[in-house]
Design goal:
There is one protein chain. This protein is mainly alpha-helical. 85% of the residues lie in helices and 0% in strands. It contains 13 helices and no strands. α1 runs parallel beside α6 and α9 crosses α10. The mean pLDDT is 86.
C-alpha cells in the first residue's frame, strides 16, 4: 500500500518538480513573460483541484481502479502534448489536462488510505508513502535540471509521458480495488451537496484541511518561485538549481521519518504541535531574510526552506489522514474537497508570484513563504489542538 500511494501521489511531484529548473528556459524558448510562465503552474494546480471534485464522487460510486486508469492515461497523453507544444498557450492548455489526470491519482490514493486504515494507522502509512514521494521529489528536479541542460525543456515533458505510461501499467497489473461497498448515490447532486456540507461543517475536517492548505501554500511558493530566485537572481545553472531544489526534498524525507517518531510517542495532534516548531522557526528566518537584504545568498534561500520542509514532512501526512478520518464511508468526497482547497491555495500563490516576483527584487518570495509558515504554525497550535481529535 505504501508503495502504491507513493507512486500515485508522486505523479503530482513529478508533474511540478521535474520541469521547475526548466521554467526560465521555457520562458526564453517560447518568448513568454513571467505571468504566462507562472500560469503554466497555476492552471495545473487549479485544474488539479477542480477535477478532484469530479473524481472523488465518481471513485466512491464506481471504485478506485477505473478512475485511476482513466486519470493516469490522461496524464500521460497530456504530457506528450505539452512536449510537442509550439507556444506557451498550448503548454498552458496541456498543463490543465495534466492537472486533471493527476487529480484522479491523488484523490484515489487518499481515499484508498481511508478504505484500508483508521486515521492514526493511516497517518503512519501515509508518512511511509510520503517518504517514497520525497525520494521522487529529490530525483525529479535533479533529473529535470540535467535533462533541460542537455536536451531543452521539452525533454522534461517527454519524461513525464514515459513516467505516466509506466504508472498506468503498474495500476493495471498491481493496484487492487479497495472499496468495500460502492455508493450508488455518490454522484447524485443532492447527495453530493449534503456530503460536502457535512465535511465543511465538521470541525476536525476544517482544522486539518486548513493546516495542509497552509503548509502546501508554502511549498507552492518554493516550487513556483525558487528556480527564478536561484537562476535569474543568484546565477545558478539549471542543473545546479535542480540540485538545490532536490536538497529540499531530502529535508522533507527526513521530516517524514520525524513524523513517524512523533506519531508513535504523541499521536496525531501531538505530532503536529511539535512539527509546527520547525515551521515557525523557518518563518522567522524567512522574515529576517526578506527584511534584511536585497541580495540574499544561496544559503539564505535554502537553510530556512530546509527547516520548513522538516515541518512539512510532519504536517502533510498527519493533515491528509486527519482530514479524511471522520468520513470512512465518503472518503472520496472528503479527499476531493481537501484537494480542491489545496489547489485553490496553490493556484493563488502561483498567480500572486507571477505578478510580484522579479529577478531584481526577490523579497516577495521570502515574505510569501514566511506568511505561509506563520499561518501553518498558528493553525497547528490553535484549531488542530482544539479540534483535531474529533473523528466522530
Amino acid at each position: 500500500m505504501a508503495l502504491s500511494l507513493a507512486l500515485l501521489l508522486g505523479t503530482q511531484a513529478m508533474a511540478t518538480d521535474l520541469y521547475l529548473p526548466a521554467l526560465p528556459m521555457l520562458a526564453r524558448d517560447l518568448s513568454a513573460d513571467m505571468p504566462a510562465v507562472q500560469l503554466t503552474m497555476a492552471v495545473f494546480v487549479l485544474a488539479f483541484g477542480l477535477a478532484q471534485l469530479l473524481w472523488g464522487p465518481v471513485a466512491d460510486r464506481f471504485g478506485r481502479r477505473p478512475v485511476l486508469r482513466a486519470g493516469v492515461a490522461l496524464f500521460a497523453l497530456a504530457s506528450l502534448g505539452a512536449a510537442l507544444a509550439r507556444d506557451v498557450s498550448a503548454v498552458v492548455a496541456w498543463r490543465a489536462i495534466q492537472g486533471a489526470g493527476v487529480a484522479a491519482a491523488v484523490v484515489c490514493a487518499r481515499a484508498m488510505l481511508r478504505d484500508v486504515f483508521e486515521p492514526h494507522r493511516g497517518a503512519h502509512v501515509m508518512s511511509q508513502a510520503l517518504t517514497g514521494l520525497g525520494l521522487i521529489a529529490i530525483a525529479a528536479p535533479i533529473a529535470g535540471g540535467a535533462l533541460a541542460a542537455a536536451a531543452g525543456w521539452r525533454s522534461t515533458m517527454a519524461l513525464l509521458a514515459a513516467f505516466g505510461a509506466g504508472l498506468l501499467a503498474f495500476v493495471v497489473w498491481r493496484v487492487p480495488e479497495t472499496v468495500r461497498a460502492r455508493n450508488p448515490q455518490a454522484t447524485q447532486a443532492s447527495a453530493l451537496l449534503v456530503q460536502l456540507g457535512r465535511a465543511l461543517a465538521h470541525p476536525a475536517f476544517r482544522a486539518w484541511t486548513l493546516l495542509v492548505c497552509g503548509t502546501y501554500g508554502g511549498l507552492m511558493v518554493f516550487l513556483a518561485g525558487a528556480s527564478f530566485v536561484l537562476i535569474d537572481h543568484l546565477g545558478l545553472s539549471a542543473w545546479q538549481c535542480g540540485l538545490a531544489m532536490g536538497s529540499n526534498s531530502v529535508a522533507y524525507v527526513v521530516g517524514t521519518f520525524i513524523c513517524r517518531r512523533l506519531l508513535a510517542r504523541h499521536g496525531l495532534v501531538g505530532a503536529v504541535q511539535r512539527g509546527a516548531a520547525f515551521t515557525a522557526l523557518a518563518g522567522v528566518g524567512l522574515a529576517w531574510t526578506a527584511a534584511a537584504t536585497s541580495t540574499p545568498s544561496v544559503w539564505a534561500v535554502l537553510l530556512p526552506q530546509w527547516i520548513y520542509a522538516l515541518g512539512h514532512g510532519v504536517h502533510q501526512p498527519c493533515g491528509q489522514a486527519g482530514a479524511v478520518g471522520p468520513f470512512p464511508h465518503a472518503a472520496g468526497v472528503a479527499s476531493a474537497l481537501t484537494g480542491f482547497m489545496l489547489a485553490l491555495t496553490g493556484a493563488a500563490v502561483a498567480l500572486w508570484l507571477g505578478q510580484h516576483l522579479s529577478a531584481s527584487r526577490p523579497q516577495s518570495y521570502f515574505a510569501a513563504l514566511a506568511a505561509m509558515a506563520g499561518l501553518t504554525s498558528l493553525v497547528a497550535w490553535t484549531l488542530v489542538r482544539r479540534n483535531g481529535a474529533a473523528h466522530a
